[in-house]
UniProtKB/TrEMBL annotation, chains A, B:
Membrane spanning stretches: none
Cross-referenced CDD domains: AsxRS_core, EcAsnRS_like_N
Domain of life: Bacteria
Domain Aminoacyl-transfer RNA synthetases class-II family profile, chain residue ranges per copy: 131-467
Localization of this protein: Cytoplasm
Name by which UniProt lists this protein: Asparagine--tRNA ligase
Organism, scientific name: Fulvivirga lutea
UniProt keyword terms in alphabetical order: Aminoacyl-tRNA synthetase, ATP-binding, Cytoplasm, Ligase, Nucleotide-binding, Protein biosynthesis
Similarity comment: family membership: Belongs to the class-II aminoacyl-tRNA synthetase family.
UniProt keyword annotation of Lipoprotein present: no
Amino acid sequence: MKRTKIIDVLDGAKVGTQVNVKGWVRTFRNNQFIAINDGSTINNVQAVVDFNSFDEKHLKRVTTGACISVNGEVVESLGKGQSVEIKVAELEILGDADPEKFPLQPKKHSLEFLREIAHLRARTNTFGAIYRIRHAMIFAVHKFFTDKGFFNIHTPIITGSDAEGAGEMFKVTNFDLDSVPRTEDGRIDYKEDFFGKETNLTVSGQLEVETACMALSEVYTFGPTFRAENSNTSRHLAEFWMIEPEMAFYELEDNMNLAEEFLKYLVGYALENCKDDLAFLDNRAQEEDKAKPQNERAEMTLLERLQFIVDNEFVRLSYTEAIDILRNSKPNKKKKFQYLINDWGADLQSEHERFLVEKHFKKPVILFNYPKEIKAFYMRHNDDGKTVAAMDVLFPGIGEIIGGSQREERYDVLKAKVEEQGIPEEDLWWYLDLRKFGSAPHSGFGLGFERMIQFVTGMGNIRDVIPFPRTPDNAEF
Amino acid sequence: MKRTKIIDVLDGAKVGTQVNVKGWVRTFRNNQFIAINDGSTINNVQAVVDFNSFDEKHLKRVTTGACISVNGEVVESLGKGQSVEIKVAELEILGDADPEKFPLQPKKHSLEFLREIAHLRARTNTFGAIYRIRHAMIFAVHKFFTDKGFFNIHTPIITGSDAEGAGEMFKVTNFDLDSVPRTEDGRIDYKEDFFGKETNLTVSGQLEVETACMALSEVYTFGPTFRAENSNTSRHLAEFWMIEPEMAFYELEDNMNLAEEFLKYLVGYALENCKDDLAFLDNRAQEEDKAKPQNERAEMTLLERLQFIVDNEFVRLSYTEAIDILRNSKPNKKKKFQYLINDWGADLQSEHERFLVEKHFKKPVILFNYPKEIKAFYMRHNDDGKTVAAMDVLFPGIGEIIGGSQREERYDVLKAKVEEQGIPEEDLWWYLDLRKFGSAPHSGFGLGFERMIQFVTGMGNIRDVIPFPRTPDNAEF
């Protein structure tokens, strides 16, 4: 008999029909009720066995984690929370799971423990939900941009250019590290390496995707990026995925509009398409909250936070206005900030961003027009001579979720900036070419995909929203 | 005025309305007709200027490659091949392109030359078409699997495991290559490296995605993979994208069914959604063919080849049957094959695959049940003791486009195989765990994305179907 996915059994199988279901045993109660999950949904189907009709030895193998196949009739369920269940006629064990050895017994496991068995954690409700939501968000990203006529561009992972300056890079090499080839004067002879030059893992596809933008108008990347930074925090990964749209003929305001529309679309898509998984995670977060002291509990539940994003306009605030608000704020006057805000030009810290978003406005905030000194070389100089057309989108609980800017499209201005920053022109000749031949105003931004998944799932540690996290001293599996 | 994309002007703008169009000048004929392209479609919009109404100096800047913005009225076109054109009222130069310096003048450029200016080649018709088709195929991949309830899993790019054995790997390191840390006994001290161990770039996400398959049932990867192999051919890249679905409860036949359905879906999607780009590439290929001697010309046009895939059932042929056919074939008897087929067990070469697909069957072929000696350790042993449940899909002109298998789900059989091949168990403990706890029959395959794009676009060199190709001695941009 052809297998029916559990999501389809629960959501439409007719009472009285015969079905085959395959999946993993979550629990087996009273030698009678098997809860089976196949990952198609967070919900289990209940398979009811008449233990008199089955060999006892056979039933003993129905343990948590075992993989089974059952044939039987769909019948109305008397149990709570499910409309139908399966009356088992045949039961086959596809793969045993020795209860003495299988680590995922039906009890609460810590997230730390589950990270050590990342190859099995997708079998828990929490990680099943996270991965299904992660998939929905991947698809939503592509759908959003495809519907708008954007083109996805695969920018290179291995790069010979290290001009972006977004962070410390990993080296990629084919050298035998035991005997790195040397030139006659004793330096490393990169001509002997695979690519004939020094190469690294990309920190951003932005510069490369701009080349496609100057031909196809509206494009985006969605790929892995890397940072060789020794940040052992709940917010950093050495390998993470980033989405970077880049649009010709967009100025800063268009860029802000697109960023806001995009974030609302993703959150709305999750609310619409991941109801059961979000309900589970919402409940999970509320349970966790109960264990915390009153003043540390979240003001809103996960579902409320998501709905809040969809329902509210993001505040748009210039850096200059933000400095004014922060300078006159209570925590600044009472010296509660670690970094006090005195002068225009100060780099904003996470504490300041959180104050603006969580205390002052209680809404997502888009900060724009930052001092040029604290932003990247490719951002467009504003006419005031002091600021660049940069923007950051700040989310409650997460901080910066998107960073972007209008790009400097004027050849002379960009060239001066490149020289001022001491970037060798041979690294960026092709990027400068875009301004030499048919330049146009254009803008773009970057969304850290895992930060977004953290926000949508409510997970506190970024290592729990990517299947196999890479962090300092950890590249297991 | 809000910009209208050229695709929308050509496909629906009402005669008499005012529009703004922005894009790059392709040609400017007779000081009157500007062909503008914005990448939203391969088609240009014609903007007609009355040269008496514009300053001559201004019009001189309307050169091939310049970026311009025009406002004007949509009028019926008298020219061939276009229904509407724009009567220009205002014309702004956004970015000049000095005709003495801009490398993309309106003439035929060689693909080799265009590879050297990969940052500009998206502005040609050929590469615009390829990148738009590449995007359509990316979206089609996600849509195909999403519609079936598969989940996309991001498997790691940096891996501490090198057990897959699909090819030579690139090293990833944070060491200063000038002074690699050593242990007391003089060996490289990988404990001092970023991840505390040796790490490489992945050659395949298969082993990792199997962990998700054993929880969510139907999953797929779509990400970059790497080979540090010194293959300077038109078919190899050091960095390429791969799609690897993995399905619980699928046996080999289910796997073949899915592969065939998937390939037909992708080709059908391109035929349906990329008509103009495919028509251009079809024509381009026919023009190229005309320059070839009669006997080297393609038997079918690009569009015919694509339609042929959609319309025909793939031949399914066991390795054993294939050997029989090859052994008795004309080229074997006449010793035209470079590698003659004598005995069962021979590894098939590209010449044999092409004979089966292009000469014998004249159809795509799925070969299955290969000798176990020539296939990977994780493939399921058949009961005959000689073969494994492997399959390769062979396409005309391309050869192997998909490779896959049913996986060995039996712990003891797999463990013996791992030991036999001398793979250290500490590298694969987690992969073996999947067979220890709740194992299930499962299958999967890998599709090289660039090979697929080559087939769909008809491009002969794989370096022309990825924006920034990485090959030996080349990591430019």
